[in-house]
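Box 3.1 — From sequence to structure: DUF2332 domain-containing protein
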Amino acid sequence: MTRLARVPRPSAGTASATSKNSKLAQTYRRFAEVDAPKISPLYERIARAMSESPEALHAIETAPTRKRNPLLILAALHHLALTNQSPTLATTYKAATTSTTTAASTSPAASTAAASADVAAYGDLAVDAAVRTLVGMTDAVVAVVGQRKVRPNVLGNHAVLYPAIAEVARRAGAGAIGLIDVGSPAGFNLNVERAGINYGNGQTLGDPSSPVQASASVVGDRPIPTYAMPEVVARIGIDLQPIDTRDADEAQWLRACVPPDQPELITRLEGELELAASAPPILMQGDKVDLLPEALARVPADALPVVTTTWALSDLPLESRLRFLQCLDAAATNRPIAWVSVEGVGVAPAIPTFGDRPASGHSIIGLAVFNHSTLQAEGVGRCWLRGQMLAWLADS
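Predicted structure (token representation):
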């Protein structure tokens, strides 16, 4: 295969040693060593190159202090590529992604070795292009980060939510439900029953023809309950900064927040955007607790309101979490209210935790039904890796 000429990186020189000792260089080097390997091999290499480039560090320093974090700078560069403001970066990102995908699908040893060499070569080009774009288009990068914030983990948590919502609706005897998702800015959780879900034990849920295909592995020998989801008659999201995905600029920024060498995540995001466009939810902007009574009132009287929180309560003080619980209880005076929680151990008030210790590295899947003055709350499972692995523990 023809090799592309490698673009030399900006010379570090003596100043490089000084930059490496700077706080900003340390931040980018730590990101490359600790965080990026879990996110993107390409971002790992780019962040390391930035930490070693005085020119790149100087460019980053022109941004406001709170806007210098690696993920935001990298997302801004991806945005410039996606909007073709940097054609060279767009081309090298595409080449690096294509070569990575090809290498992953290659099986013979000789071909794999050649493909890996191509990945390295195209990756070098992408790294060089990213650093050069940052240095050469500093004003454009700073303009983007000044207007944006990183939007990670916006994809729907369908694999863990679907069985829990169907189970709590069954327990409440609901023929229809209204979904209220708290703290998921794009509202993708609200399309949970419209996604296709595949579990590692061979079970499936949802729509197999959906543009969104989610998956999760199952721990233990207890199967996931496969009750049908009732009709969803309302979809309402609450967040301090909701994302209207019908806005082309907002949707493009979500794309920019996905690393370019993660084609599966990019495909998943495109599917989520497609589902959201076909059934736009009601998005309410404001405090998670203050808006809850209004959101509950929007659910038709003959439907069960099901409130969902997925890692949305951990940033709230205990007082606010207890107030959240009180709001649900107060709204259950005239009809049942259900709550499905996927939160860290001990974060969701009133949800049992199987005796697990806080900060155990996993989360508890909890179900609660409020009905007049009664509360039935149960931990029904554990999950890891933000719902990519789960264990169902309750009798169904």
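Summary of the box: The chain is about 45% helix and 20% strand.
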